[in-house]
Amino acid sequence: MSVVDRQEWDVVVVGAGGAGLRAAIEARERGARTAVICKSLFGKAHTVMAEGGIAAAMANANEHDNWRVHFRDTLRGGKFLNQWRMAELHAQEAPDRVWELETWGALFDRTADGRISQRNFGGHEYPRLAHVGDRTGLELIRTLQQKIVSLQQEDHRETGDYESRLKVFQECTVTRILKDGSRVSGVFAYERETGRFFVLQAPSVVIATGGIGKSFKVTSNSWEYTGDGHALALLAGAPLLNMEFVQFHPTGMVWPPSVKGILVTESVRGDGGVLRNSEGERFMFDYVPDVFKEKYAESEEEGDRWYEDPDHNRRPPELLPRDEVARAINAEVKAGRGSPHGGVFLDVSTRMPAEVIRRRLPSMYHQFKELADVDITAEAMEVGPTCHYVMGGIAVDSDTAAARGVPGLFAAGEVAGGMHGSNRLGGNSLSDLLVFGRRAGLHAAGHAAAAATGRPLVDDAQVDAAAAEALRPFSAEAAGEEPATGPAENPYSVHQELQQTMNDLVGIIRRESEMKQALLRLAQLRIRARRAGVEGHRQFNPGWHLALDLRNMLLVSECVARAALERTESRGGHTREDHPAMKRAWRNVNLLCRLADPADGPAAAGPEDGRIRLERQTTDPIRPDLLALFEKEELVKYLTEEELYE
Amino acid sequence: MATGTEPPPSTHPRPSSGVRGAGRAAIAAPHLRTDRWWLAPAATAAGLLAFIVYSTWRAFANADYYAAPYVSPFYSPCLAENCRPMHAGPNADVFGGWWGISPAIIILIFPLGFRLTCYYYRKAYYRGFWASPPACAVAEPHTKYTGETRFPLILQNIHRYFFYAAILVAGILTYDTVLSFRDEHYAWGHMGLGTLVFLLNITLIWAYTISCHSCRHIVGGKLKHFSRHPVRYRAWQFVGRLNARHMLLAWASLVSVALADFYVYLVASGVFDDPRFF
Amino acid sequence: MSSYDAHFRVWRGDVEGGDLEDFTIEVNDGEVVLDIVHRIQSTQAPDLAVRWNCKAGKCGSCSAEINGRPRLMCMTRMSVFDRAETITVTPLRAFPVIRDLVTDVGFNYHKAREVPAFVPPEGVGPGEYRMFQEDVERSQEFRKCIECFLCQDVCHVVRDHEENKTAFAGPRFLMRVAELDMHPLDAAEESGLDRKRAAQDEHGLGYCNITKCCTEVCPEGIRITDNALIPLKERAVDRKYDPLVWLGSKIRRRPS
Known about the structure:
The complex is a heterotrimer.
Chain A: E1 5-8, E2 11-14, H1 18-29, E3 34-38, E4 54-55, H2 67-77, H3 84-103, E5 118-119, E6 129-130, H4 136-159, E7 166-170, E8 172-180, E9 183-191, E10 197-201, E11 204-207, H5 228-235, E12 240-241, E13 246-253, H6 267-270, E14 274-276, H7 300-308, H8 322-334, E15 344-347, H9 354-360, H10 362-372, E16 381-390, E17 393-394, E18 409-411, H11 428-450, H12 460-471, H13 491-505, H14 512-530, H15 542-566, E19 589-595, E20 612-618, H16 624-627, H17 632-638, H18 641-645
Parallel strand pairs in A: 1-10, 2-3, 2-11, 3-7, 11-18
Antiparallel strand pairs in A: 4-6, 5-6, 8-9, 9-10, 12-17, 12-19, 13-16, 14-15, 15-16, 19-20
Chain B: H1 39-61, E1 66-67, E2 70-71, H2 104-116, H3 119-128, H4 159-179, H5 193-210, H6 213-221, H7 230-243, H8 246-268
Antiparallel strand pairs in B: 1-2
Chain C: E1 4-14, E2 17-27, H1 33-43, E3 63-66, E4 69-72, E5 86-90, E6 97-99, E7 102-103, H2 106-114, H3 133-142, H4 150-154, H5 156-159, H6 171-182, H7 195-201, H8 213-217, H9 224-240, H10 243-253
């Protein structure tokens, strides 16, 4: 059966968002023949949704900023669970990655003296986000896309073929990572347009597929965010790290229903927007947690002064890290002080002149006008938490972005875990993509070069198995291995139930009983997903694509639920109603998810036994010189006695 | 698909090109618009046609273009021997006696050329008269299209020179407007209804001329670094704001110039006397 | 919340042929056309092919023609239509159809490659770029482009004349040329590349007859014609049709 088309490449990058494209550029510049595979059209990746900016301590807006301050903010935001070496590299390298974008044609907003302008954002001590209005992600993607095109133009001049060294396979989905023993040997993929299967053989594969938000009902994520990379890595034998940490962005649209979850950028607050409940009260002042008490304003007057004079005033609590704000909004709504459609009010209309709002927040103005018929220069927006980002992800080596335990597998961007700890600061995502995208590309190219003699081989049996798995939804009713238990399932209904389950039972506030229930439901859904059947043929058939993506969403959802059940504390993006406090004993504990049965084929296990096994691991102690960046009093709140004395 | 562009093999070659051509979604209708898309091009065509008819009549009439102190903008400046003498008016016998037909023809070439090559009017008549395209997403009837790549339409590129000429013409019309502050005995310090008509016309003529895309380019658009030319940057911004209303100004000035001419015609042909304010 | 049933006609088919298919489908408050297409997909036609992604007007994937007008499905609210109206949704008609509402937009990626990339200035390292807001603003407007290709679809030069596709880059990519030509630090000229001349000679600027449909359909409200195409035409005029410049170049060239 293995008559699928095969091609040889040095590096295959799965995903064409910020991390994937940056990795591809680096790999190609290091001499590796590089292929990029993405589910959407080239340039449509979810990165375009990023609005606020790229965090990088360039010190253009405040000369006191430097990488150490950025590192400190990142660790505070992540509640000290971050893989500290990643946070260090990230803070150090981000400025170079931003400046490099300018040499590729990016046009950021400028300061009066002609440098890159930087704006304030939640959790960042200084104005640090390089931005272009509120469409920074689009600028980033377009710049990387155009850089890829320029490399292709170079190749065309030399070889006569644009795609001789760098090729984008757009609208293709990878369903399996292929292996030769323990080593990566390539990927199995299908073309969405035709349904044709193909195999790219390569010693290095970089996973840069982004997040998992499409497993939740209310989400700011697009359809692509089905946790593909997470699942591919799991199935290839690599562990996932700290999957319980899911960031709910505090401000998503809540009305109308069809756009519920769409993001309202944090810049609205960074530029002066305030949160109010139905009683008109700026409630965030009541929600400043102890660990942040000294850093935030205690009165509205002080908070307001801060926008003009940040050196002598403390910032308003609307700019607390996202987890704090999301929980506060949740609590206000629960206490009956919510807005008519179940959110709270975010108001810029009384804080800035209409002209300024339209200039600084053009796409927000546009978005509310077009989608909700709300003029944000005249009235308040209604907002509520929306699933936005997963901090957990593939466990990687900090320096090389190599996935643990699978030689040749690399991961960068949202799909990689560790960098952001338990909670990501706004703006750190785009810089993460660039810093670790580049590192992944660099080391993937290096790995491929080292494997030049003795490239791993693709095993025909694996290709056949992958093809059979992918074709399964077309013969769902006649599923051979199990007794037929009824007609084929509609994949859209299974997906909707999955989203509802995750939203209701493993959402922003979690309880043990609910998560146990969620695991049961996931097990049932897994069985139903096995029978998900599709009509029509393989040519651009969205029902089929969804049926295949369900496997990934279910795997990843199980990881989230299991890890969330295990971690009996509240920290960052993980809030337990039954364990509301952050516990120092959990500070240095990582939860790793692995496939329970590593030899697991496509067949699912029974409903009671899940497919995921959890493993606890103690993190490396933070390097002393980095710890020395914090005050002792602050560290006491996070670290255990033993850690402090070491 | 890879980013390559090999067209998919077409198995059903259909003869026609365009939206009903091979490879495109098989939809028989040339367009599926449900709104009154034909209204705008029809109105444009009707408006332009009306002006053409009127101006042709007036330009060839060679009569009733001067009623002291007003000279019709169609006949100013008047550059042949057969012009009516206008006291201190825009007379200049450049062409001499051999010019037999209406002297308006000599000078009208310039405003006509300016408007004919104007970026707004191009859109208007390409859509209204030539149906290329009749409206957005409505298939055009032509089988071939080369746009402004070859003669004669490549000549549209000389718009800039007509712009320079239009500045001169506007200057002369300004002079005519100044002259309209006289009475019929050429005494200064008077004003009539015609003066108002002329003032309105010259304001709109200038606004239209200055709002021209070529003007926008020349004052600043051609620069790479606005920051090094603050004055030109300000000028560019000003012209840009006017330019955003270029269509409106194009129509308003077209009507006003016809109105100014018609006013002179009415007074010159004795339909009524110019009401004097002082 | 009020809901009602709407009448939809959606084109279904592929390169072999196809037709408009009728659907009666529920519509709720605040929904957009893409919501309805999704509802058709999840309840009546699971294999209905449609491209979409962000559903917030930021990625430019869900381009289609609604009642004959090129639009983003995610940004077309159902409330703009009369409840009794039949709403027709077809794929983009300027590009080869693949299936249902999905077309092959490869033309655009092909054209993107033909525009020479940004040329970084020599001797200015990363971090040393100094540009002023007023200098980057023009190009920034063009960089708002989400590449939905509605302008490429509506432009009659290629929509109605397949044969022009080789010579004409289309509004989106002429705008890209303008963007680079107005970039304050682009060093194309120093490297011997004349973007103004190339716009006319290589990218078919002369085919544009400035009938402004690209501007009319742009979901980002970019003033493509007034701010990119016409300025580019004027810049080409500087190069090729200005007799003074032409004369100057003749005189300068003679000694050699």
